[in-house]
Specification:
Helix content is 26%, strand content 26%. It is of the alpha+beta class. It has two domains: 9-113, Cytidine Deaminase, domain 2 (3-Layer(aba) Sandwich); 134-246, endopeptidase fold (from Nostoc punctiforme). A hairpin with a 7-residue loop joins β9 (208-211) and β10. The longest helix has 14 residues, at 9-22. 33% of the residues are buried.
């Protein structure tokens, strides 16, 4: 990928110094423009698992918007990995609409990622909680198949181990109603190795479902046996109720 921004030696050195300072955690920061000059502003990584991902401090983003002429790019490191952007990096690059710069550490290699219209495939996508997870897959399927835009509820990793109930608290607000018959396009809410309903899938028909398990690639599975026993609710989006009756 081409470099959309020409970095000075000082900015490059600052990025590498930050990656080294926080290693083996991921560093994150912003490239800021002040007039003709572009500098690197290191930011705090607020992720609960900073060795695996980053959450850039929103206060740092707000400060940058107030003090810099513009935010030019988002920077983060891949500890003990190549600088090639992950699938989650490419998805988030599209969401932010900004170039991303990834530094592999300790190699120090730099690779740019530009917004280019990338969409993660429904099958074989990598798992990153909050970016590419079971609910993201459900949202993407409903949008691509039916142009139904589901809300993107805030969720922290391992929310099901705390006092949060993402699916049961929010399925009605997302436009779903509980049903007893099973039709293609229905949502399946499951309880997997948890005291809470913590997993969602889409029923595709012919005893096949689409889902994305924690830490695995997304894919199709036979809907039966274990998955059927652990289903707690079958839900249907209100926009598809008429289609189900017509079928």
């Amino acid at each position: 990928m081409h470099a959309p921004i020409a970095l000075s030696d000082a900015a490059t050195a600052a990025i590498r110094a930050h990656a080294a300072q926080v290693y083996p955690r991921e560093c994150c920061g912003l490239l800021l423009r002040h007039g003709a000059a572009i500098s690197y502003a290191p930011c705090r990584n607020l992720a609960t698992a900073p060795e695996e991902q980053f959450i850039l401090d929103p206060e740092a983003w707000a400060l940058a918007e107030d003090t810099a002429d513009s935010i030019e790019a988002i920077v983060h490191s891949h500890p003990n990995a190549s600088a090639n952007p992950s699938m989650a990096d490419r998805v988030m690059c599209e969401r932010t609409g900004l170039p991303w710069l990834v530094i592999g550490w300790p190699s120090g290699a730099l690779v740019w990622c530009d917004p280019c219209g990338f969409e993660a495939p429904l099958i074989g996508r990598e798992f990153t909680h909050g970016v590419l997870d079971c609910y993201t897959l459900v949202r993407d399927w409903y949008w691509r198949e039916h142009r139904i835009q589901l809300p993107d509820f805030p969720r922290t990793d391992l929310w099901w181990e705390r006092d949060e109930d993402l699916y049961l608290d929010n399925f009605a607000a997302a436009g779903f109603v509980e049903v007893t018959d099973l039709q293609p396009g229905d949502g399946l809410l499951m309880q997997v190795l948890s005291l809470k309903v913590n997993h969602a899938a889409v029923y595709l028909g012919d005893n096949v479902m689409l889902h994305h398990l924690y830490g695995r690639l997304s894919g199709r599975d036979v809907y039966g046996g274990y998955w059927q026993r652990h289903t707690r609710k079958i839900v249907r989006h209100r926009d598809l109720l008429g289609a189900a009756r017509a079928a």
